[in-house]
Amino acid sequence: MATRLDGKTTSRTIRDEIKAEVQTIVHQGGKIPHLAAVLVGEDGASETYVNGKVRDCNEVGFKSTLRRFDATISEEDLLKEVQALNDDPDIDGLIVQLPLPDHISVEKVTEQIRPEKDVDGFHPVNVGRMAKNLPAYISATPFGILELLKRYNVETSGKHCVVIGRSDIVGSPVSILMARKGNPGNATVTLCHSRTADLAAEVRRADIIIAALGKPEFVTADMVKEGAVVIDVGITRIPDETKKSGFRLVGDVKFEEVEQKASFITPVPGGVGPMTRASLLYNTLLAAQRKIYS
Ligand code: NAD
Asked: What's the pLDDT score for residue 44?
């Protein structure tokens, strides 16, 4: 039976560490970290995510600013608003919640954020620096995965890691990070996607599986080698009348059966999700302390 990689408890520990750091900053009269979040439109899930991020900031003692705009805002006006936040010296970290309405280019908005304030790590400068193993903001989910592996002392060096999914925000960056020199890292990485010829065969060879494809319970026990480490990034809402919310969250891994074979496994919920939230706080702290771009 696998050991659970408990993201909830680990993220609590990280948030407590950040809170203590903020108290030290306050005590020494230093700069209190300040995160600005931009929300466009009224998408329910985005609203939940942004509110959670603002709540997290308040909880650790950060300042936060939430700028909300109507879904009809023009691209030009949004770019100006982002620039104003770039120019505000009190704001250390700046995020724009995705998705954006169709008439606004995600690329343009992402590139408008100054790399020094891009605590989501989506700007091409940060992605490039991350790939070159230079100091960079690493996007929250890949960073959270690495931190979880590190805090549970999971060996990655020399291991064969199979990543399923090649998105810009999870699959691609985590594949680079796992192959990079460092700890965690130094793994031999196979990046699988929707065009991979025999995905099950690839996954079966993995010492570490990172599933980030967004297909509920896709990874089954027959695809998992005995003793593999299984990181489940997927989150899909499945209708469930027994829940107050009307849905339950399901990962990309068939948890009950894979748990029997794996050495370590992340649950959904309570695995990668909470780590993602803690990582954004950590990046904002780094921004306030000018640790990445000094
Ligand atoms: P995405 O839709 O952008 O990318 C999915 C990737 O999976 C694509 O590269 C695609 O090629 C690949 N894929 C799809 N079907 C496949 C198949 N049958 N076989 C092999 N590859 C396949 O998704 P994303 O943004 O990377 O998110 C993936 C999942 O992770 C979603 O469920 C999302 O909700 C979740 N997520 C969770 C967190 C978190 O904090 N836990 C953060 C981000 C995303």
From this structure: 87
Is the entire prediction scored with pTM above 0.90? Answer: yes
**Among 233, 236, 280, residue to substitute to test ligand 1 (most atoms within 8 Å of Cβ):** 233
Q: Which of 57, 275, 70, 282 is nearest to 152 (CA)?
A: 275
Helices assigned H by DSSP within the chain:
7-27, 44-60, 75-87, 106-112, 124-131, 140-151, 171-179, 199-204, 255-258, 272-288
With a 6 A CB cut-off, is 167 part of the ligand 1 pocket? yes
Which residue spans of the chain are classified as CATH 3.40.50.10860?
31-114
d(CA 169, CA 34) in angstroms, rounded, equals 23
Q: Reply yes or no on domain 31-114 having CATH 3.40.50.10860.
A: yes
Contact present, 264 and 230 (Cβ < 8 Å): yes
Q: How far apart are CA 106 and CA 97, in angstroms?
A: 10
| pLDDT tens digits along 92-122 | 999 999 999 999 999 999 999 999 999 999 9
The pLDDT value recorded for residue 232 is: 98
Query: CATH 3.40.50.720 spans which residues of the chain?
Result: 140-274
Cβ(194)–Cβ(231) below 8 Å: no
Catalytic residue among 53, 117, 159, 261: 53
Distance in angstroms (rounded) separating the CA atoms of residues 17 and 25: 12
Q: Ligand 1 centre and the CA of 168: distance in Å?
A: 10
Q: How far is the CA of 266 from the centre of ligand 1 (A)?
A: 16
CATH of domain 140-274: 3.40.50.720
